């Protein structure tokens, strides 16, 4: 039996892995089956991937990326797309797929995942397109969430938590006015929100139930510490203020100048924050 010489090179393997995001063994098998023909090998990977799509259903998708776009300075759209491994997350193919999802979100005006999944991509629903593209990648790919906000001025900020991977954190920030100063403030606050992870824009947005629960915990803690009854109200209010400073954007100490709150920075810029969204991959 003569030695079989594969009619493809290491460079072909590398190119096919980059193009499809598929694993080393799958790429070699596909090239063998396709007799070294690059396009045919892509097709082989795709067909095998679609067959395996149902098997991948239960797999965990904790990796991925966040990407965003601002249209006309007034509309911000952001999506989170997940996959299984960071190897796929940084592949050109996955990044291109996420860009397509974002493009579809912008064009369709979809404000929730359901509407986005149903939106048209080249004559088919996005949900179907994602399954097919995920098949080529050989991983479960999920469009996890989408956000669309509008304002006088909207800023989108994407943050890389690792230089080797696409952005893992994204923020959309809307303020009520347009202009240079408003844009600069929106951007500064977006960068702040990426780092400081606020949950709510203002105190009004915090559910009453959450506040009550926090108040109860503060009271019980103060009693357990044996604090005097007369000082109780002041102590509880102080702890609630501390709680707001952690979770409410406008109450947080501004990351670039901790002597000021975010609310104060907005006030000095002559604008009010009207909406924000923060995504972090997998959280």
Quickly list its features.
single chain; 11 helices; GTP Cyclohydrolase I, Chain A, domain 1; 21% strand; 283 residues; Helicase, Ruva Protein, domain 3; three-stranded antiparallel β-sheet; alpha+beta; 47% helix; Tetrahydropterin Synthase, Chain A
Characterize the structure shown:
The protein is of the alpha+beta class and 283 residues long. 47% of the residues lie in helices and 21% in strands. The chain has 3 domains: 10-52, Orthogonal Bundle (Helicase, Ruva Protein, domain 3), CATH 1.10.8.10; 63-202 and 251-280, Tetrahydropterin Synthase, Chain A, CATH 3.30.479.20; 207-247, GTP Cyclohydrolase I, Chain A, domain 1. It has a 3-stranded antiparallel beta sheet with strand order 1-2-5. Strand 1 (63-71) and strand 2 (75-83) form a beta hairpin. The chain is elongated and about 85 Å long.
A few lines on this structure:
The protein is of the alpha+beta class. It has helices spanning 10-20, 24-33, 38-52, 86-89, 92-108, 113-118, 126-137, 180-196, 208-224, 232-247, 262-268, and strands at residues 63-71, 75-83, 120-121, 124-125, 142-150, 153-159, 169-175, 253-254, 257-261, 273-280. It folds into 3 domains: 10-52, Ubiquitin-associated (UBA) domain (Helicase, Ruva Protein, domain 3), CATH 1.10.8.10; 63-202 and 251-280, Elongation factor Ts, dimerisation domain (Tetrahydropterin Synthase, Chain A); 207-247, GTP Cyclohydrolase I, Chain A, domain 1.
């Amino acid at each position: 039996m003569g030695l079989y010489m594969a009619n493809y090179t290491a460079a072909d393997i590398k190119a096919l892995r980059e193009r499809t995001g598929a694993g080393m063994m799958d790429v070699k098998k596909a090239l063998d089956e396709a007799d070294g023909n690059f396009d045919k090998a892509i097709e082989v990977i795709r067909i095998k991937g679609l067959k395996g799509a149902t098997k991948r259903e239960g797999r965990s998708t904790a990796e991925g990326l966040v990407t965003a776009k601002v249209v006309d300075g007034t509309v911000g759209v952001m999506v989170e797309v997940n996959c299984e491994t960071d190897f796929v997350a940084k592949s050109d193919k996955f990044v291109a797929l996420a860009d397509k999802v974002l493009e579809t979100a912008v064009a369709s005006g979809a404000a929730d995942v359901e509407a986005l999944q149903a939106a048209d991509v080249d004559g088919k629903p996005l949900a179907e397109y994602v399954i097919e593209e995920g098949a080529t990648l050989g991983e479960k790919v999920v469009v996890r969430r989408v956000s669309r906000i509008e304002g006088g001025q909207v800023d989108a900020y994407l943050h890389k938590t690792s230089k080797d991977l696409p952005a893992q954190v994204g923020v959309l920030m809307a303020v009520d006015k347009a202009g240079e100063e408003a844009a600069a403030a929106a951007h500064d606050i977006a960068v702040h929100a990426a780092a400081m992870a606020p949950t709510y824009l203002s105190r009004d947005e915090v559910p009453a139930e959450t506040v009550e629960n926090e108040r109860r915990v503060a009271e019980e803690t103060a009693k357990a510490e044996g604090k005097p009854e007369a000082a109780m109200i002041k102590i509880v209010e102080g702890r609630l203020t501390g709680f707001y400073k952690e979770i409410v954007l406008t109450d947080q100490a501004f990351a670039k100048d901790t002597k000021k709150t975010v609310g104060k920075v907005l006030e000095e810029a002559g604008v009010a924050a009207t909406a924000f969204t923060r995504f972090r991959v997998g959280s």
